[in-house]
Amino acid sequence: MPNRSTTAVYCSMILALAACSTTTTQSFRVAESSNVEAAFIATDADFSKYHQLLARDMGIFFPQNVSMSDEDIARLRQIFRDAFLPKLDHYTIVNVPAPGTMAVQASLIDLRKAANTDVPGLSIELRDIAKPGALVFLMEFQDPQTDKVLGRAADSTAAPEFAYGKGGATDWGAVEDAAEHWSVLFRNFLDSNLAR
Hints:
Helices cover 28% and strands 23% of the residues. The chain is of the alpha/beta class. The chain has a single domain (3-194), classed as Double Stranded RNA Binding Domain (2-Layer Sandwich).
C-alpha cells in the first residue's frame, strides 16, 4: 500500500469498517467460548450454507499522521499470508464470490498513535474493539452475495513494534510471532463457528 494513499485508505477503512447502511442495522451476539478478546456473530447468521472461503487481501491501517514504507507494508502482508494460508488447509479457498462462499477479511488496525479525533467514523460495533491506543487484529466474515456481515473477531494480545516513517526499526521477529499467534486463534475461531 503506497505511502501516498495511506491517508485516503485510512479514511476509507473507517467508512468500510463502519459497515453502516443508512437504512439497515444488524444485531450481533457475543460468541460463546471464544479464544479471542472480542467476537460477535450476527444473530441471524447461518454458517451451515457456506462450504468455501473467499480470502480477501489483508487491510493494514494507521492513523493519518503515520506511515510505513512500501517495502515494509509488502513484507508485513507476506508474513501474515505465510502464517495464515497453511492454517486454512482444510478449507476450499476460491478467488471469486459464488453461492456457498463466505468472504474472510483480515485487517491490522494500529491505533497506538491515534487520538479519539483520528477515528470519528468508527461504528458502534467496532468502537470498543478498535480504539485509540490499541493495535488490533480483526477478522470479518461476510456473505459476498449480500455484503451482510456474519461475524467479527478481534484480538490485541500481540503488539509488535513497527517502524513509522524514517528511523526506528520494525521488530520482524515479533511480527512473525504475532502473525502465528493470530493465525492459530482465528483458525480455532473459524473451526468452532463453521463446525469443522
